[in-house]
Every structure is written in structure tokens, then in C-alpha cells.
Amino acid sequence: MIQQIDYFVIAPPLALALVAGLVLLLDAFLPARPRTRATLGLVTLAGVLVSLGLVVAQAAGGGTPRSTFCVPPNLAGPGRQAELCSFVVDRFSLVFAGLVLVAAVVVVLLSMTQLDGGGIPVGEWYFLLLCTLVGAVTLPASRDLIMLVVALELVSLPVFALTALKRYDGRGSEAAVKLFVVSVVSTAVMLFGVSLLYGIAGTVYLSRLAAVFSGRIPAPGVLAGQLPVTGQELPTVVTVGVVLVVAGFAFKIAAVPFHSWAADVYQGAPVPVAALLSVISKAAGFAGLILVLVAALSGQAATWAPIVGVIAALTMTAGNLLAMRQRSAVRLLAWSSVAQSGYILAPLAIAATGSAPPTGDTAAATSALLSESTAVGTSTAYLVIYAAMNLGAFAVVMLVSRTAARNELDDYRGLAFRSPLAGIALAFCLVCLAGLPPGLAGLFAKVFVFRELVGGASGWLALIMAVNTVIGLYYYAAWTARLFTPSPSPAPAKRVAPMRATWLAIGLAVAVAVLFSIAPQLVLNATSLSAFG
User: Fold this and answer.
1) What contacts 244, CB < 8 A, 6 or more positions away?
2) Is the pLDDT score of 532 beyond 50?
3) Is the bond leading into 228 cis (omega within 30 degrees of zero)?
4) Cβ-based neighbour number of residue 470 at 10 Å
5) What's the chain's average pLDDT?
6) Cα angle, residue 120 at apex, residues 117 and 124 outer, rounded to 5°
7) Among 173-187, 274-288, 358-372, where is mean pLDDT lowest?
8) Residue 174 CB-density burial (10 A; 0-12 exposed, 13-18 middle, 19+ buried)
9) Which of 77, 80, 233, 422 is the most exposed place for a label (fewest CB within 10 A)?
């Protein structure tokens, strides 16, 4: 069988992969000088921007999904009238790819500052970072279980090395080991669940899985037995498979009860890696979770929707309560990120409500289901707004970490007087995360989720979210107050090299957060929520 490959469809991840190889070659042949570090950073940044430009070109090409790596109809099974495809570019994948690449621009800028101090192999750093981005851009477009798992591991594996890449850093090595163990366990759990689903449905394609588990076609898998099995008569093993898959992704997004690794890993990793974990890795995890639950298992929503709702409630509650006890800036952002995962996860508990099942088992039908689900749009909108707010906070933390080794909350006391721009930027990002004016972006994000929960008859979850929003106000307000409180005995300022890249990252993240506060309709339109508001 000879497959035709549409290279325009796979152009964004392909461009990132080519630049990753170029970075390794340049690192091998260019002399080891400070200018070389800057050159590799600029090459990486250029690669990310080129990939982002290709995503924009795909989005400008129209709303029709494009696919590649497809099985022709005559080989896809008896009675097939359409292809089964593994890689599909649609509105869902474009939004997530754009989010990942814009966030990657900020992470690369932070990396330039991190690598200026030496002690970290520059070529390997940028190579691993680009490999992570390849997986993060590929994952939202994956439409079969095999590609989904491979892309998710491509996101995860390079992060282990990035976390421990700083030489003679025991804390970084410990964080890398913890992250490795957690990721391996989560992958094993998820693969077990995937194998059970494949055994029932007899296919790895998400569109065919949706048709089987919604009862439109019989389940031909080896675990289904000899009799035709419909969506209402599926054996208990399907429930086990669904639970295991949800548990595997819960590890990836640091959802309760699989959240304990987050704070130690964030604190031990370099700040750019912590920012990557909090936004890019989290976005990839949510993209995979949405694809599996909504695109493949919508027919089993009665099984997974209550589980997702309980996990969301526990995640936002545990994250906020643990964040209140933190004195380290990075650990507070880590637990805040856990709480935000709960808010993003909450609409998925009602993702199947009001969404008609796809009329066929084709890629177009799956894309339509994703784009028509207001719950998916709500989660995506919250994730996009959260990314801008959180990256801005991490960028200021990166700035302060160059002069404060411990990087505790007390180190930020009086920051608005020592560095007004940094203090105001951090204050705005924290106010956004809290959902208070003038940070209207965070307020809009929470309103989107709250309205979706109330409209989906999940009043209990909306109430828990409201309580947690009030709890979150405490630690965000306490940190913001420190910024404008004069320090009683200011320490002498340390001389550090100019950090233009970090300032550029701060400006970019804050500008996007301000834009979302002024024009939230931009997010609504991008995430198919224009009709929702």
C-alpha cells in the first residue's frame, strides 16, 4: 500500500523537527562562544515562528478539515465509504497548535536568559525543547490511539532531560526522577486502558471508536465475544478501560489524586521548564484528554462524566488549599496551576450534554463533534486565557530569580518600587489569575466555565468552583500586596547582565493578557464560543 502524504498538513511539526536537527548541527560545528548561545536561541525562535506562520496559513485556508496518513476505503474494512485518517488538521487542532507555539515563543525567550549563566548544554537544551514542541503540535491533530500515545510521550520524554540538564544540581536531578517515575506509571496505566478499548472495538481510530461505543455499529474486537455488542450492551471491561485512560491523562495534567509531583518538579526544574510544564505540557494533556473522551468515548459519557466531575472538584479544591500554605513563588504557582486544571477540567464533565453523536465514523464527523461542543470550547477558552496569565507570572519570576536565590514570596516585597514595570506586570497577572478587575481576562474565563456548568445542570460543581474562586483570592491577593509593600531593610541589589529576552517575554505575555481583557471575543471566536456569549 502506498500512501499519499500531504506535506502542507504536517508542515508545522515537520518544520520544528527540521530546526531541531539544524540546532544540533550548529552546536556541533560552531565554536563554543557566548555568541553561539545567542545564535542557537535565535535559530530556535525563528523555527517556532516559522511553524506558527504555517499554522496561521492553514487556518487561513478555510474551515474544511484536511487529513493525511489515511487508510483507503477499500482497505479500511467491509462497507467502508470513506478513509480512516491518523492526522487531521481542523479548528480544534489549529487552536491548540497556535496556543502551544505562542507559549513556546515565551519559553524560548526565557531559555535565552537561563542559558546565559552557563552550566547547561545549549544545543541539547534547544533540541529537547523543539522535540517537545513537535509532540505538542502533533498531539491535537492525532486521530488514532497509537499516534496519540506516541505524541504524548514525545511531549513528556524530553522534559525529563530538560529538568535535569543543569549540571551539579541535585534538586533538578531529584525533580527529573520524580517526573520520570510519575510519567512512566501514567503511561503504563493509560496503555492498559487503551489496550482494553482496542480489544473491544477492534480499531485504534477515534472516529471508529466513537461509532462502536455509541452503539451505531457492532463491536468486532476480540474481547467482545462472538455476539454483536451494541453501545448499551458493552461489557464491564469497557468501564475499566475508560477509567484507566482517564487516570493516565489525570497524571499528565496533575489532577487529583495524581498531583503530588507538581510542586517538587516545578521547584526543582529551571524556571523555563516549569513554565513549559504549566502551559505547553498541560495543553497537550488536555488536548489528548478531550480527543479521547469527546471524540472517541462520547457514547460512554455516562461512565466518565461523573468521574471527571469529581476529579475536577477535588483538583481545584486541593490546588487552592495547598497554594495557601506556600512561601516559595514557584511552588505557589505550581499549586495554582493544579487548581486551574480543575477549572479547565470542569466543563468536560458535561461535554456530552447537548452534543449530538457524530453521524458517521469519519474524520469530518469527529471534527464536527469537537467544534460543536460548547463544553470543549469553554475548556479551550479557559486554557488559552490561563496560558497568557501564567506565562506572564513565570516570566517575572524568572526575572526575580536572577537576584534572589531562594525566590520566596518575601523576595517580592517592594518589587513595584524597585522595578515598577516588573511589579505592575506581575500584579496584573496575579489579579487576572484571581479573576478580579482590572484583570478581566481571568474573570471572563471563570464566567465562561460557570455559565457552562449552570447551563449543563451541574450546579453542585458550579458551587464548588465559586467557593474555590474565593479561596484563591487569598493567596493571589497576599502575593500582590507584597509587591506594593515597602521592604523594611532592602538588600543591596546584585549586578546582573541585562535580560532583554526576559523583558520581551514579560511584555508579550502581559500584552496578550491585556488584549484578552479588552477583547475577550477574540478568544470566543477562536474557540467556537462566539455563539455561546
Assistant:
1) 189, 190, 192, 193, 196
2) no
3) no
4) 10
5) 85
6) 135
7) 358-372
8) middle
9) 233
Q: Say whether pLDDT at 363 is over 70.
A: no
What percent of the chain has pLDDT above 70?
A: 86
Q: Is the pLDDT of residue 411 over 80?
A: yes
In angstroms, the CA 346 to CA 328 distance is: 28
What torsion do the CA atoms of 221, 226, 227, 233 make, to the nearest 10 degrees?
-50
Residue 412: other Cβ atoms inside 10 A: 25
CA distances from 277 to 107, 132, 267, 390 (A): 10, 10, 11, 11
**Beta-strand relationship, 66-71 and 84-89:** antiparallel
Q: Which of 157, 132, 127 is nearest to 43 (CA)?
A: 127
Buried b (16+ CB within 10 A) or exposed e, 180-217: bebbeebbebbbebbebbbbbbbbbbbbbbbbbbbbbb
DSSP per residue, 241-252: HHHHHHHHHHHH
417 pLDDT exceeds 80? yes
Q: Grid coordinates standing for 22?
A: 539544524
Task: Dump pLDDT digits (tens) for 368-390.
Answer: 666 667 888 889 999 999 999 99
DSSP assignment of 13-73 equals HHHHHHHHHHHHHHHHHS-SSHHHHHHHHHHHHHHHHHHHHHHHHHHHT-SS-EEEEEE-G
Task: Give the pLDDT band of residue 490 (cuts 50, 70, 90).
Answer: low
Q: Is the pLDDT of residue 529 over 50?
A: no
Report the C-alpha gap between 165 and 175 in whole angstroms.
11
Residue with cell 502551544: 100
Tell me the H-state helices in 277-373: 282-290, 301-323, 329-345, 363-372
The model's pLDDT over 219-257, given as tens digits with 9 standing for 90+, comes to: 665 555 533 444 445 567 888 888 898 888 888 898 988
- Calpha distance 52→345 (Å, rounded): 26
CA distance 149 to 186: 11
Closest to 380 measured CA to CA, from 405, 356, 344: 344
Contact by Cβ (8 Å): 301, 352: yes
When pLDDT is averaged across residues 429-450 and rounded to a whole number, the result is: 89
User: Which residues have a Cβ under 8 Å from the Cβ of 383 and sit 6 or more positions away?
Assistant: 99, 282, 283, 286, 344
The confidence score (pLDDT) of residue 364 equals: 62
Contacts of 84 (CB under 8 A, 6+ apart): 70, 71, 76, 144, 203, 205, 207, 208, 361, 362, 363
The residue type of 328 is: S
Inform me whether the pLDDT recorded for 357 exceeds 70: no
DSSP annotation of 85 reads E
Answer for the pair 324, 403: CB distance below 8 angstroms, yes or no.
Answer: no
pLDDT for 78 beyond 70: no
Q: How far apart are the C-alpha atoms of 367 and 359, rounded to whole Å?
A: 12
Query: 542559558: which residue's cell?
Result: 115
* pLDDT on residue 74: 58
- CB-based burial, 279-290: b 16+ in 10 Å, e otherwise: bbbbbbbbbbbb
